[in-house]
Amino acid sequence: MDYVLSLLGPLWQGTTVTLKLFFITLALSVPLGLVLALLRISRLRSISTAVNGYIWLMRGTPLMLQMLFIYFALPFVPVVGIKLPDFPAAVVAFALNYAAYFAEIFRAGIQSINKGQYEGARVLGLTYAQTMRRIVLPQVIKRILPPMSNETITLVKDTSLIYVLALNDLLRVARGIVQRDFTTTPFIVAAAFYLIMTLVLTWIFQRMEKRYARYDD
Amino acid sequence: MDYVLSLLGPLWQGTTVTLKLFFITLALSVPLGLVLALLRISRLRSISTAVNGYIWLMRGTPLMLQMLFIYFALPFVPVVGIKLPDFPAAVVAFALNYAAYFAEIFRAGIQSINKGQYEGARVLGLTYAQTMRRIVLPQVIKRILPPMSNETITLVKDTSLIYVLALNDLLRVARGIVQRDFTTTPFIVAAAFYLIMTLVLTWIFQRMEKRYARYDD
Amino acid sequence: GNNEQPATEAASQPAAARKVVVGLDDNFPPMGFRDEQNKLVGFDIDLAREAATRLGVDVEFRPIEWSAKEAELNSGRIDVLWNGLTITEERKQHIGFTSPYMENHQAIVVAANSPINTKADLAGKVVGVQEGSSAVQAVEKEAEITAALKELKKFGDNVTALMDLSAGRLDAVVLDEVVGRYYIAKRADEYRVLEDHFGAEEYGVGTAKENTELLAKLEEALNAMKQDGSAARISEQWFGKNIVK
Amino acid sequence: MISARDLHKRFGHVEVLKGVSLDMGKGDVIAVIGPSGSGKSTFLRCLNHLETIDRGRIDIEGETLVDTDAQGHCRYVGDADIRRICRKMGMVFQQFNLFPHMTVLQNVIEAPITVKRLRREQILPTAERLLAKVGLAEKHASYPSQLSGGQKQRVAIARALAMEPDIMLFDEPTSALDPELTGEVLRTMRQLAEEHMTMLVVTHEMNFAREVANRVIFMDQGELIEDAPAGEFFANPCHPRTRAFLQSML
Amino acid sequence: MISARDLHKRFGHVEVLKGVSLDMGKGDVIAVIGPSGSGKSTFLRCLNHLETIDRGRIDIEGETLVDTDAQGHCRYVGDADIRRICRKMGMVFQQFNLFPHMTVLQNVIEAPITVKRLRREQILPTAERLLAKVGLAEKHASYPSQLSGGQKQRVAIARALAMEPDIMLFDEPTSALDPELTGEVLRTMRQLAEEHMTMLVVTHEMNFAREVANRVIFMDQGELIEDAPAGEFFANPCHPRTRAFLQSML
Ligand SMILES: Nc1ncnc2c1ncn2[C@@H]1O[C@H](COP(=O)(O)OP(=O)(O)OP(=O)(O)O)[C@@H](O)[C@H]1O
Ligand SMILES: Nc1ncnc2c1ncn2[C@@H]1O[C@H](COP(=O)(O)OP(=O)(O)OP(=O)(O)O)[C@@H](O)[C@H]1O
Ligand SMILES: [Mg+2]
Ligand SMILES: [Mg+2]
């Protein structure tokens, strides 16, 4: 038991790295995903195709590869090449990757809104931008909460991939201690940490769903 | 170019490991997920709660941890403890984990079927089992294709986690060559391999969606 | 303290002459690892600190994924590899080495009750190593033995391999002797080290090949530390005897 | 054919049926009318066990489906018996409840094959005859989503008839339909009545009630207020609530 | 108020409007009737630019919305002008198209605030007056999903009126409603007509057409076949197709 207590400090430090990556990724990829979704449904064929290709590439290859690429290979790419430190490289890879997933969720949400809503807004004189902002997107939020909740919980666990850049997130710290002390207890404690994080997220999303349940479609 | 060709052999070997894990996981977790989903919506409170807890545990902790647990810790657990070789341990962890995800997809699909379908079948004299088998599940398949497609594509990429059990999947082989040859080309080739696999999957699911598009709900 | 913070800043600065960035695997006891307070400690850490003081530069320790060490060095994110880095012919092609500061063997660890006693007994057995470690090259160099093995399994780290040895799925693990002894000290009743080994080798400090200036300075500092006994003192702290050469 | 005695049903705190009784003979065509929320659908659904009653007794063709003992405990017969007894009644819903993944023909033959264990060849002639009867012979390979509302409802009727029920229950079979499509469904139902099918029809179509039904019953607030031959019902309704309702419908 | 000249519209290979013309004066209440698929909805939707026409000319209150030049090219005015001109027409749909995430009051004040840039306090009295007028003053804080169909449709009417249109277009405003709920919507529309609102109403309600409209037009297969004062239309329809249709509706 004392041993478990002694683990809490280092594991908590790992958790802060995990949480930092989690929150920054979320803050970047949600708006980026929304922009991508709007471009994706744009009538300009070329833009829509380009965004589609981007989403396909990001969802078709492992995030770990994307991270390794941005960290190690990107500096040698001409023009856009830039040498990023480890944590920023991880953040960029995570944000670009999750933006692609969120974009698909947003797109499906926007397209699930009945044509009648656009027509109802149109005959009242609202412009396309006003219709999106005031009528469509507020309704989209309610509908995308379940897939967003799934994706966000996946993100918590995906953060552990940053071990490839030797960043000490929760899981890597746990593995480090396992190697130092030669016991698997830290894994069990780490699992509990993850469960707590996902529980909190689940709870937050449930509250949001409840809030939006005040109206039905 | 010659160098790229010389990579194809080893990378293909890694790909066979990846594909083997992928197909076995799918073959095990889909039926298991269906059983879990049916238990989850069962009226027996205790069963439904237990399944719910299982799903929560499996979705709340990283798959990598689950794999390490089954490989190293399970042998020491009394009663159920069993010492599995590396690949079977990975398969068990993947199947148990993905079954939880699939169960949630199936459950949502089943619950999205209109109450009228059950009543329509009931007044014709169909039993609950007949209604499930003949009326509900065939309709569920159509509805769950999009989330199943997502989850399956995620599985392709998740297979790379088996490196923790020292198995040589595609991504790990690529990393090995990167270390040996001091170049990032293998990453690019590996990315192409992943893209091909996800493309094939996307194509299969699109065909299935088209097949089911012959009727509307 | 916490080493990630300054590390990220350092990488965005141009190679600062007043600071040396040391890349290491922070899960590599006893050479470099984290203590209960999550602080980086270890034999190589102390050695590098001492050398830095002598050179009059700040030292910064930067955890890296060990299997990506060449890429890290190559990309200039770190200046020095100092973490039980074995000098091998392959590595010499990409890395500039100081002269050796320590001798090491690629030790063979087996379960305490194992019938294996010599290298030859490994025929038909499953052997584990850490991916990207010099143990891989050491074992593969002895081609007949490698060919006779049932399988050579490459793990992400040594502990996974040792745990698999405990679980009975491996018959032996090959790893740096200094590291192996550290672990065996923790579970003396479970493992033993064979007399036989996969060759002696030497640890050196590595830099980028073109960074000859830094290499020369490190060489100088190391020699001075060996001569005035400070290296021996650090060794006694960590190993109970002087194994610096 | 159907005898319901003093049916009571509550949803939570709301008593939806407050002691409804009805006797129905062979060949009866009874129209059930009444304002929205008066319990018409619930009454129908209790008869074929889509809802369970809280008190009362139901007999179908002389067999007891449910009864209430002296202590007020309501007892249903066993599951298999319930299924057997209820199969004597076919039901058509307002929302059709066709199976969208099956063609029209598959919809019709599904229950005979699965429930009655008939072979496909055995039921096929019947199914084709029924589809011809409802005027949809040439639509047998269409999916429900390819049909108009009126066509869907006629398939639903054919599907119910394929199980050869003795009694047909209809719950507002035309109220999800455009006025123009209503006619074709009512024509099919009129034809059934002419063939002496026993029918219980919840409807808003006064013309149908007037012309096809031989009895009309009026429900309000969970009670069966009036029960009279059709002609009498419209010419001379007894109860003031019936009169008010009939006025509002015209 | 509205002048449509020779409107043509095709969807793919199907010509849905084959040269429809209509002149509508201030205060006119015109009922549009005709069989399903005859192009009634399409005609209405072309008038306020929910569909674009392929040929023809539309003027709204003397301003041209779209015209066709000698080469047969159809030219709409600029986007801002389209929005300004179409805002003179309010529209009520069969499916209501209320905004489900907004309360009744928010539905009504959304467009005045967003489009006309009124402040909340400026529009609130109007909104409350309109809700009172359609009999829903006390429902202002409800969400659409908490209303019956008839109530929803009346909110939709109030929402359209809040933009102070000169003309109201209705596309089968009651055909998604139960017969019992139809009455309340028709009453609201009758009241509007009495206040001399100019209205164009696609409807299946013959009573409404007969009693409220001053003109009735009959469309069939993309053509406007008959256009007559309401009394005359029902008493003495000219065209055989009109006669056949009227017969089928009774
Ligand atoms: N499953 C249920 N749970 C709770 N209340 C219900 C349920 N089903 C019906 N009710 C309520 O019971 C009452 C009677 O409903 P019922 O559907 O039987 O009326 P109805 O006469 O068929 O009306 P309508 O003409 O609108 O179909 C209504 O107040 C309704 O809200
Ligand atoms: N967006 C569209 N794409 C293709 N065809 C269409 C479209 N909208 C309408 N149509 C077709 O145009 C024809 C006229 O349709 P419209 O909706 O105008 O008829 P309607 O007279 O309003 O019929 P209803 O009484 O059923 O509403 C129909 O054949 C319809 O299938
Ligand atoms: Mg009802
Ligand atoms: Mg229409």
Alpha carbon gap, first and last residue of chain A: 51 Å
* Distance separating the two termini of chain D: 33 Å
CATH superfamily of chain A: MetI-like
Computed over alpha carbons, the radius of gyration of chain D is 18 Å
SSE arrangement:
The complex is a heteropentamer, with two copies of chain A (about 220 residues), one copy of chain C (about 240 residues) and two copies of chain D (about 250 residues).
Chain A: H1 2-40, H2 45-60, H3 63-73, H4 86-111, H5 115-123, H6 128-158, H7 170-181, H8 185-212
Helix pairs in contact in A: 1-2, 1-4, 1-7, 1-8, 2-4, 3-4, 4-6, 5-6, 6-8, 7-8
Chain C: H1 4-12, E1 19-24, E2 33-34, E3 40-41, H2 43-55, E4 58-63, H3 69-74, E5 80-81, H4 89-92, E6 95-97, E7 102-111, E8 126-130, H5 134-141, H6 143-148, E9 151-155, H7 158-167, E10 172-176, H8 177-186, E11 191-203, E12 206-208, H9 212-227, H10 230-239
Parallel strand pairs in C: 1-4, 1-5, 8-9, 8-10
Antiparallel strand pairs in C: 2-3, 5-12, 6-12, 7-10, 7-11
Helix pairs in contact in C: 2-9, 2-10
Chain D: E1 2-11, E2 14-24, E3 29-33, H1 40-47, E4 55-60, E5 63-68, E6 74-76, H2 79-86, E7 89-92, H3 104-114, H4 120-133, H5 149-161, E8 167-171, H6 179-194, E9 198-202, H7 206-211, E10 215-220, E11 223-229, H8 230-235, H9 240-249
Parallel strand pairs in D: 3-9, 3-10, 7-8, 8-9
Antiparallel strand pairs in D: 1-2, 1-4, 4-5, 5-6, 10-11
Helix pairs in contact in D: 3-4, 3-5, 4-5, 5-6
The structure holds adenosine-5'-triphosphate (2 copies) and magnesium ion (2 copies).
The site of one adenosine-5'-triphosphate has 10 residues of chain D, from helix 1.
Structure keywords:
heteropentamer, C: 245 residues, alpha/beta, 5-stranded mixed beta sheet, 10 helices, 12 strands, 38% helix, 25% strand, D: 250 residues, 6-stranded mixed beta sheet, 5-stranded antiparallel beta sheet, binds adenosine-5'-triphosphate, binds magnesium ion, membrane (chains A, B), cell membrane (chains A, B), ArtM/GltK/GlnP/TcyL/YhdX-like (chains A, B), transport (chains A, B), transmembrane (chains A, B)
